[in-house]
Amino acid sequence: MEISSSPRLVLLVQMVMLSVVTVASIHSLASDESALLALKAYINPETQYILANNWTRATSVCNWIGVTCGGRPSRIIALNLSSMGLHGTIPPHIGNLSSLALLSLRNNSFYGSLPNEVSCLHSLKTMDFGFNNLTGEFPPWLWSLSELENLVLQGNDFLGTVPSSLSNITSLRRIDLSYNQLWGSISSSIFNVSSLQVIDLSFNRISGTLPADLANYLPELKELYLSGNQFYGQIPISLFYCRELQVLSLSSNDFTGTIPSDLGNSTMLNKLFLSRNRLDGLIPSSIGNCISLKEINFSENNLTDIETKWTKGKFRLGVDL
């Protein structure tokens, strides 16, 4: 008998393989479900609201509020519980959601530290814990999330320095660490992630000078927010050669020197905020070349005059000479 030619055997093998795939899918979804039930258990029952009756085993986990499933075998690929008034802590079980591409707990009242197990979410592209009450040292393991594109931790109470290892996440497009308690200088390697489009480190206690070539490796940079820190020294001229730059916010620091005439190269710039620094000299006439500029604020500096006449009518001005 030739086993390889037996139709029954081939059919049996196919059925076994299908069974294995189906069981694997059930087990994967089952582990995802268990992880979410653990998260629910860590949320104050008084704030569970619609999760209380929806997140139960009586309903398929893929139909739970805030949950999106996908892939083959089916897994949870997105969890979005933004602005649901939830109060609680984030359990380590969340690290079992290994197929997550999006995780957003934004604008709730989660507190405590981020569990190290979040570092197991290697498929994650968007992580948004913005506007919660999270505390503790800035997570040192973030660099392990190599697929991450959007990192949002704004409006929490994270402490410590921004680790240079973040530069290992070469797919990052947006990083928002604003309104935390971060301090110290920031490694220039952070500005070497060429895919970055938005950098927001505003309203921390970060200090030091900005590297002169800060923008040389950021061809896609659109928005840079560094206001409300303790940066000092001169504004890097290279910033005004970022062809895509639309927003530059450096207010409430300790920058000195003059506003570079290279500013005129920023033809895409529509918002420029340099108030409350120690800038001096003239406002360069080249600002008239910034054809997209709509809002500027140079107030509370030591600027003496405007270099030559330039059209002010199209700007929303904040200039205190």
TrEMBL record:
<keyword id="KW-0677">Repeat</keyword>
<keyword id="KW-1133">Transmembrane helix</keyword>
<dbReference type="InterPro" id="IPR001611">
    <property type="entry name" value="Leu-rich_rpt"/>
</dbReference>
<comment type="similarity">
    <text>Belongs to the RLP family.</text>
</comment>
<dbReference type="InterPro" id="IPR032675">
    <property type="entry name" value="LRR_dom_sf"/>
</dbReference>
<comment type="similarity">
    <text>Belongs to the polygalacturonase-inhibiting protein family.</text>
</comment>
<feature type="domain" description="Leucine-rich repeat-containing N-terminal plant-type">
    <location>
        <begin position="30"/>
        <end position="69"/>
    </location>
</feature>
<dbReference type="Pfam" id="PF13855">
    <property type="entry name" value="LRR_8"/>
</dbReference>
<dbReference type="Pfam" id="PF08263">
    <property type="entry name" value="LRRNT_2"/>
</dbReference>
<dbReference type="InterPro" id="IPR013210">
    <property type="entry name" value="LRR_N_plant-typ"/>
</dbReference>
<keyword id="KW-0325">Glycoprotein</keyword>
<dbReference type="GO" id="GO:0016020">
    <property type="term" value="C:membrane"/>
</dbReference>
<dbReference type="Pfam" id="PF00560">
    <property type="entry name" value="LRR_1"/>
</dbReference>
<keyword id="KW-0472">Membrane</keyword>
<feature type="transmembrane region" description="Helical">
    <location>
        <begin position="9"/>
        <end position="30"/>
    </location>
</feature>
<protein>
    <recommendedName>
        <fullName>Leucine-rich repeat-containing N-terminal plant-type domain-containing protein</fullName>
    </recommendedName>
</protein>
<keyword id="KW-0732">Signal</keyword>
<keyword id="KW-0812">Transmembrane</keyword>
<keyword id="KW-0433">Leucine-rich repeat</keyword>
<dbReference type="InterPro" id="IPR051848">
    <property type="entry name" value="PGIP"/>
</dbReference>
